Amino acid sequence: MRSAPLRDEASADEDWALNQRVAGGDRAAFQLLVLRHEGRLRAFLSRAAGCDADDLAQEAFVRAWQRAGEYRGQGSYAAWVMGIGWRLFLDQRRTARRREGLAAGEEAATSTDPRPASDAAIDAGRLLAALSPQERAALTLCFGHGWSHGEAAAIMGLPLGTLKSLVLRGRAKAQKMIGEGADA
Amino acid sequence: MTAPDDRDIDTMLAAMLAPPARPGDRGFAMGVERAIDAQAAYARARRRFWRSFAFEALAIGALLAALWLLSSAPLLAPLAGAGHWGLAPPLLLILLLWFGTQRWRQA
Question: Fewest CB within 10 A of the end CB: N or C in chain A?
Fold first, then answer.
């Protein structure tokens, strides 16, 4: 379950070489990396985070610039930068919840999300609005972007089993909703 | 109409969640560049602030120590009456106010 561009070894090597230059302070190399990966990162974050996706993506790239020396080439550059973006999203969500005084657990963002309208607007359809951000992110990474379960788990910082559960649960919800829509 | 099967669901999800196939967004890349510049400028300003804060705190500490030493020197006691030393607290207050406004201006 992996798309051809991600499997491209040459592309990964290029990313690694570019990041080596970025670690040395090369802005032009960083521009190239941004242009290569921004589409995928923004698409991923827009599924998970919604309206703040571009801000999060920008912040993720700023962090990637600042921490270029920390990327050691294990896994692809795209996975690394997506992991940064995902952690930023989780931090932002945690801060927002704390500010709003919401003591709800992780799953509260499913059907009891206080912003259902904006969540619905961010997704490809109403179908995805019914999923939690974690489920959306897991489905987006595995189905939309073609990452393997292991890679998606690494990006989201989750154990493999948890990621697989999220994918199964999200997929089952999607199937149910599509089925209900088809029967209606 | 029946519910879609597993393969249909996978295909639908893949189509729905696939990233857009488009060239890189130069506008976004420029925005990232500007954000990096802004962060660097902010970091420089912070460093400048703390450096100047450290120096000024040191200077005020030295001044306070000097005043304390002067006030406790028996040699100077006959030269300065109690009224003179009584000026020290308001003067110090002015100094602290100046220090505070400097910090506020630079923040």
Answer: C
The 10s digit of each residue's pLDDT in B32-86 is 999 999 999 999 999 998 988 888 888 888 877 777 777 676 766 666 566 566 6
Q: What predicted TM-score, i.e. pTM, was given to this entire model?
A: 0.71
CA distances from A172 to A100, A103, A116 (A): 31, 27, 20
How would you class A64 by CB atoms within 10 Å of its CB: exposed for 0-12, middle for 13-18, buried for 19 or more?
A: buried
Neighbours of A78 (CB within 10 A): 23
Is some CB atom of chain B closer than 8 A to the CB atom of A122?
no
Q: Residues A45-69: pLDDT tens digits?
A: 988 877 778 999 999 999 999 999 9
Q: Does A174 touch chain B (CB under 8 A)?
A: yes
Distance from CA of A103 to the nearest CA of B (A): 30
State yes or no: ipTM above 0.85: no
Burial B52-88 (b: 16+ CB within 10 A, else e): eeeeeeeeeeeeeeeeeeeeeeeeeeeeeeeeeeeee
As a whole number of angstroms, the distance between CA A59 and CA A65 comes to 10
